[in-house]
Amino acid sequence: MALSKTDIISTMCAANPEISRAKHTASFNAVIEAIKTLLCQGNDISLTRFGSFKVRETPERPARNPMTGEKVIVPAYKRVAFKASAEILKALKDSLA
């Protein structure tokens, strides 16, 4: 089950009820916006105990249109890769055991 932004903010509110929902929402939005801005600038982001985000460049490559068989060039593009920290991976492994 995928959690939405609202679900995450609700969890934050439950963990810290003394802080208003509006402040939790503003904090969440600020973090997401900062991550987006830094990644768009080409920066890698490492969040201790969580994981790291890296901008990866995929080079231009030849491909074939499966419907027509025509050769096409897929342009180069950038993508974001996420690698979970050892702590997160261990917690996931332990939750499945």
What would you say this structure looks like, in words?
With 97 residues, this protein is α+β, with helices and mostly antiparallel strands. The chain has 3 helices and 5 strands. It has helices spanning 5-15, 21-40, 86-96, and strands at residues 45-47, 51-58, 61-64, 71-74, 77-84. A 3-stranded antiparallel beta sheet has the order 1-2-5. Strands 3-4 form a two-stranded antiparallel ribbon. Helix 1 crosses helix 2. The radius of gyration is 19 Å and the shape is elongated. The relative contact order is 0.11. The mean pLDDT is 95.
Short description:
By secondary structure, the chain is of the alpha+beta class. Helices cover 43% and strands 28% of the residues.
Provide keyphrases for this structure.
single chain, 97 residues, alpha+beta, three-stranded antiparallel β-sheet, two-stranded antiparallel ribbon, 3 helices, 43% helix, elongated
Please tell me the overall pLDDT. 95
Which spans of ≥5 residues are poorly predicted at pLDDT below 50? none
Major pleated sheet: 3 strands, antiparallel
Q: How many β-strand runs?
A: 5
Specify the overall morphology. Answer: elongated
Query: Which class of secondary structure composition applies to the elements?
Result: alpha+beta
| Oligomeric state, counting identical vs distinct chains | single chain
Helix content: 40-55%
Along the chain, the helix and strand elements come as HHEEEEEH
Q: Please give the radius of gyration in angstroms.
A: 19 Å
Q: Which percent range describes the beta-strand content?
A: 25-35%
Number of helices: 3
- The largest sheet has its strands arranged as 1-2-5
Terminus-to-terminus distance? 19 Å
